[in-house]
């Protein structure tokens, strides 16, 4: 029988910058796409506008434009005044074609790069633009491919091994007994939580074939007796009953706002009165002006999924809209935070 991994142990060093190198890699490509591919800043200089008008004038989709505007606010290139977006001084001097200091030619070669082309396509169509056959499918369908599912869960697991123990230590689960980790991938977060809370049992709810990857990962760590796997489709099936905590870790950011509301509504229906929902993710600030590192990673999500990062205010509104109460926000580690709420008794 595999020996149980020590998932409460922390490394001596901080890998923050290592993760950020990867997470923000698409943000410069989006800047280039806006400068060269859309002439976005020159247009906005002539006519400040809100997001809806920007979409209409440039023929762009709402979700990717939301990501783009959030990024440029975080970078200090635009600011919102009375509902409309305006250029800041640095953008007027360096990002507007008519300026003598225009840097457009410095970015001109970007437009031929596959990532830049893909981002421009996503801005116009709202379709994910990752290269690779599996990623050309909708996200849920791509995860039905065994190879893609195993590779993706492995990617997330390598981050979760660092983040999971801190998440577990932040949660007060003394009065709870059973946790459902929805779309939990490799099960790393469920394993970390039960490692820190010996009284607790957990189940990861995953769709085939990811559930097979999940079972293997949990067994390899030695947690098979305390963390189970339930197979099902979170979109088509009701969430399993019998759990007083629901964990959504790195799951909601893959979907558009309507789908997020649907999924949280399923949590509300399945949880008992007094049940706790935990949303573990990276969250933008309430004004959606940053932090820059989260806004930059949201570009990566925009390109590869049907979602984006949401602000604290947006998540609180989603939770309240389906019936949850008493939302609470706190920071965790590596730009992560948790938002918890309860189903009223």
Characterise this structure.
This protein is of the alpha/beta class and 345 residues long. It folds into 2 domains: 16-137, Orthogonal Bundle (Arc Repressor Mutant, subunit A), CATH 1.10.10; 140-288 and 307-342, Vaccinia Virus protein VP39 (Rossmann fold, 3-Layer(aba) Sandwich), CATH 3.40.50. It contains 15 helices and 9 strands. The protein has helices at 16-23, 27-37, 40-46, 51-58, 62-75, 89-94, 104-107, 114-125, 139-142, 146-170, 188-196, 210-221, 257-270, 292-304, 312-322; strands at residues 78-81, 84-87, 178-182, 201-206, 227-231, 245-249, 276-281, 325-331, 337-342. It has a 7-stranded mixed β-sheet, sandwiched between helices. Strands 1-2 form a two-stranded antiparallel sheet. Strand 6 (245-249), helix 13 (257-270) and strand 7 form a beta-alpha-beta unit. Helix 2 (27-37) packs across helix 8 (114-125), helix 5 runs antiparallel to helix 14 (292-304) and helix 13 (257-270) packs across helix 15. Residues 131-135 have low confidence and may be disordered.
């Amino acid at each position: 029988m595999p020996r149980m991994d020590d998932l409460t142990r922390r490394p001596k060093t901080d890998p923050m910058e290592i993760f950020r190198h990867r997470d923000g890699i698409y943000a410069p490509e989006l800047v280039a796409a806006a400068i060269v591919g859309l002439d976005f800043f020159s247009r906005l200089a002539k006519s400040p506008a809100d997001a809806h008008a920007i979409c209409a004038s440039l023929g762009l989709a709402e979700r990717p434009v939301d990501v783009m505007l959030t990024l440029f606010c975080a970078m200090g290139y635009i600011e919102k005044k009375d509902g409309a977006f305006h250029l800041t001084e640095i953008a007027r001097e360096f990002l507007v074609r008519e300026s003598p200091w225009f840097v457009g030619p410095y970015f001109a070669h970007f437009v031929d790069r596959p990532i830049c082309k893909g981002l421009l396509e996503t801005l116009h169509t709202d379709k994910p633009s990752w290269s690779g056959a599996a990623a050309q499918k909708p996200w849920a369908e791509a995860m039905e491919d065994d190879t893609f599912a195993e590779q993706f869960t492995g990617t997330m697991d390598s981050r979760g091994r660092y983040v999971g123990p801190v998440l577990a230590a932040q949660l007060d689960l003394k009065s709870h007994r059973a946790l459902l980790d929805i779309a939990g991938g490799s099960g790393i977060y469920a394993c970390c939580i039960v490692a820190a809370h010996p009284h607790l049992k957990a189940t990861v709810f995953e769709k085939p074939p990811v559930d097979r990857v999940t079972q293997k990962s949990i067994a390899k760590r030695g947690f098979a007796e305390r963390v189970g796997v339930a197979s099902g489709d979170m979109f088509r099936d009701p969430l399993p009953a019998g759990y007083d905590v629901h964990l959504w870790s790195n799951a909601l950011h893959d979907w558009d706002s309507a789908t997020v509301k649907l999924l949280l509504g399923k949590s509300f229906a399945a949880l008992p009165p007094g049940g706790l929902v935990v949303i573990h993710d990276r969250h933008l600030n309430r004004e959606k002006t940053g932090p820059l590192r989260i806004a930059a990673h949201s570009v990566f999500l925009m390109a590869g999924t049907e979602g984006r990062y949401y602000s604290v205010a947006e998540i609180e509104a989603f939770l309240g809209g389906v019936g949850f109460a008493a939302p609470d926000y706190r920071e965790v580690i590596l730009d992560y935070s948790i938002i918890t709420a309860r189903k009223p008794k």
